Amino acid sequence: MYVLMISPGYPPEIPYFTRALAWAGARVLGVSDQPESALPPEARHNLAAYLRVPSLQDEDAVVEAVKHWAAPVRVDKVECLWEPGMLLAARLREELGVEGMTVEETLPFRDKDVMKQVLSAAGVRTPRHARVTSAEECRDAAQSIGFPVIIKPIDGAGSADTYRVEDAAQLEATLPKLSHLTEANLEEFIEGEEFTFDTVCVNGEIAYYSITKYRPHPLIARTNEWVSPQIVMLRHVDAEEFAGGREMGRQVLRALNFQTGFTHMEWFRKPDGEVVFGEIACRPPGARSVDVMNYASDTDLFAGWAEAVVKGQFTQKVERRYNAAIIFKRALGRGRIHRVEGLEHLLTRYGEHIVLVDLVPPGSERRNWRQTLLSDGYFIVRHPDLARALEIADAVGTDLQLYAG
Ligand SMILES: Nc1ncnc2c1ncn2[C@@H]1O[C@H](COP(=O)(O)OP(=O)(O)OP(=O)(O)O)[C@@H](O)[C@H]1O
Ligand SMILES: [Mg+2]
């Protein structure tokens, strides 16, 4: 089987999926704009062939180049796990006559307004919303939706250019910050806890799912540097308190006719218990979340996804033994990291529950915490008991400090 993989080496966890495809028996044809020598080894060593294109953004040119390049073989699947490449992958499927999601089926996963239109038509509770293309439309939409509102790009990621707006005066102060966008989504602000519902599906059936809780909300984590954001993969996903989220997840996947692969949905639970849809992507969650899933259940979802794509089945054993949390750390100060404090104390106190430590090494430049949630490094911890898992995650947040400057 030939699987054409768009962006097989980026973002950082994608090479593990590329490798898993090859291990599942596929001949993987990689297409991206990175030089072949820059591909991480897990991707480079597992590709049957690689086509470097000048830019993945130039869809027409990529389609032409790929059609010519892949002509000698019959491509069976086109896969892409990188958000900006989803529509390109769909177009390539259509052009090459490959089964899988079409452009029309992919659009509701990429355009946050179309997404909510399709889902509310199917009876899913979505935030009240409007597509806006001018300051005037923003004012009108905010008036009819009612403050507080959220303004965000139609196809945003990583909470970039996303603002909570309390009132008309704040709206006026926010509008200039959005002037570089040609259109945006304006939404009712949903007050409540924020969770994910992530799946691997095979032929329209959910083969694996997980529920994670964001601590705190991604928007708060992205606007406050001092926060050590946590993503907590919950052990007891079948608990009654998540019934609404699970049911919404199933309803959303049915409404969007999703068939095979990873999905990543975000949802809210209001204090009165009402669940509200957030957004959905047809790819795995980023920021090492798949590793967190694997640690929570002693499983291998890189392999599970690849098996679903290549063989149309999912045979990974999933044993939900732990709550697993990833905690991202941000250094104090600018420039190079020069000191780490608290690591020994944490390892002594919680060592057996800390399964991974990956910090930017002393001497290296800090990462841009606004651009990558990975920030200056992260811990993954796990514990069968949720309260203990959270206690350990919080200890990593408060007791570990990196210093730069
Ligand atoms: N209607 C809303 N009500 C309350 N909070 C919201 C709403 N829309 C977005 N947010 C907040 O902003 C964050 C980012 O919004 P959203 O998830 O739509 O964009 P994104 O940039 O694709 O996110 P990411 O890539 O980080 O998942 C959400 O995780 C949530 O914390
Ligand atoms: Mg989001």
Overall description:
This protein has 405 residues and is α+β, with helices and mostly antiparallel strands. The protein folds into 4 domains: 2-100, Rossmann fold (3-Layer(aba) Sandwich); 128-188, Dna Ligase, domain 1; 191-321, D-amino Acid Aminotransferase, Chain A, domain 1 (2-Layer Sandwich); 324-405, Aldehyde Oxidoreductase, domain 3 (Alpha-Beta Complex), CATH 3.90.1170. It is 33% helix and 26% strand. It contains 14 helices and 18 strands. The longest helix is centred in the C-terminal third of the chain and has 14 residues, at 386-399. Adenosine-5'-triphosphate is lined by residues 127, 150, 152, 156-160, 162, 187-190, 194, 217-219, 266, 278-279.
Strand pairing plus helix content: what structural class? Answer: alpha+beta
Q: What's the architecture of the largest domain, going by CATH? A: 2-Layer Sandwich
Global outline:
globular
Helix content: 25-40%
Uncertain runs are none
Strand content: 25-35%
The separation of the N and C termini measures 51 Å
Number of helices: 14
- Rg calc: 21 Å
**Major sheet:** 8 strands, antiparallel
Total tally of structural domains: 4
Heteromolecules bound = adenosine-5'-triphosphate, magnesium ion
CATH-level-4 superfamily name of the largest domain? ATP-grasp fold, B domain
From the 3D structure, determine the CATH topology of the largest domain.
Answer: D-amino Acid Aminotransferase, Chain A, domain 1
CATH class of the largest domain: Alpha Beta
Number of beta-strand segments: 18
Give me the side-by-side strand order of the main sheet: 13-12-9-10-11-14-17-16
